[in-house]
Amino acid sequence: MSLQLFLPYEERTLSLKNRMVMAPMTRCRAAEGDIPTPLMAEYYAQRATAGLIITEGIPVSNKARGYLWTPGIYTREQTDGWKQVTAAVHEKSCQIYAQIWHTGRVSHTSLQPNNEQPEGATDEAPGDAVCFAYDEDGNPANVPISTPVPLEAKGIERIRNEFVQAALNAREAGMDGVEIHGANGYLFDQFLNSVVNTRDDKYGGSVENRCRLLLETVDAVSEAIGAERTGVRISPNGKFNSMPEDPLMEETFIHLANELEKRNIAFLHINDQGSFGMPPIPVELIQKIRAAFSGPVILCGGYDAQRAQDALASGLADLVAFGTSYLANPDLPARLQNGWPLNQPDMDTFYGGGAEGYTDYPVYEG
Ligand code: PHB
After folding, report:
1. Which of 184, 234, 235, 275 maximizes ligand 1 atoms within 8 Å of its Cβ, making it the mutation to test the pocket?
2. Is 196 part of any domain?
3. What is the tens place of the pLDDT at every residue in 247-305?
4. CATH code of the domain covering residue 311
5. Which residues have any ligand 1 atom within 6 Å of their CB?
6. Is residue 355 one of the residues assigned to a domain?
7. For 135, which of 141, 195, 247, 317 could close a Cys bridge (C-beta 3.0–4.6 Å)?
8. 321 lies in which domain range?
């Protein structure tokens, strides 16, 4: 009997050869101009053993960046650069979604046009979080995050439009769809969190207001490329990037799940930061979100074959995403299916550099 994890999956526009997803992971290997490279195409093609690849976070503008060398999708050259990636992945019968991203307050002046301050939900910087930017001597380094400027109505409208344009560019580049990055302490998550979001306009305060920016963006992107090609990623209970404990967390994410249910989106992707060494999502909350949202659910966060299989068998997830285990094992499905040993990920080569620790992880040779 074949385990569910390795069976094909068909739903909405997802047509997947198995139920394994390569999770989005920042690798900081874009070329000058934040342009995707042939090496990136090779990296993703090696991992097209998954049913679905969700790309690393792709900034939607030059103000959306929180790290050096993250590939963009807002210039002609960047969009064209992604074409080699999607072609190489499709060649191996794997679907690919672009994760479109604005890091909000998780950024640094050295990454911003004219060294401006980053834009966030408020003017408060996230505690002791760092980002990968330039230090005072102009050398790449982990630096403390800069104080943000609160977004005004005009900036909010511009950002919504940037997500729409990024989604259109993604489709032009051959992506099967996009995942809006609503997780991990970045822009949308900053609006969702009732402790961070102290705004007094229609984007702050009530749960409807805190969810408004993400939902308006989902609607605008859906109108442009189709709800069935628009996924959303969230990280309930997330503490990464110095996100504070939120007493309204549960009601926020249940409201969001109910709203997304009405919109027939491609999938809801839930990242459990337990695998980042942070507190996990209470399983009861995942169950409640699952009950509210009847579309495809992807769970991510430190899964091995057994836990993945259990999540699928219990109906909690339709698909399971694998992060660092996919990073280190391009042939992860075959390894899990056969019980073969796994390569261990090398953290020193996660961000930046070339082929080392990127495209040189070996497949299992027996
Ligand atoms: C990271 O670069 O560590 C990173 C980026 C995006 C995420 C999570 C982690 O959503």
Report:
1. 184
2. yes
3. 999 999 999 999 999 999 999 999 999 999 999 999 999 999 999 999 999 999 999 99
4. 3.20.20.70
5. 26, 57, 67, 183-184
6. no
7. 141
8. 4-349
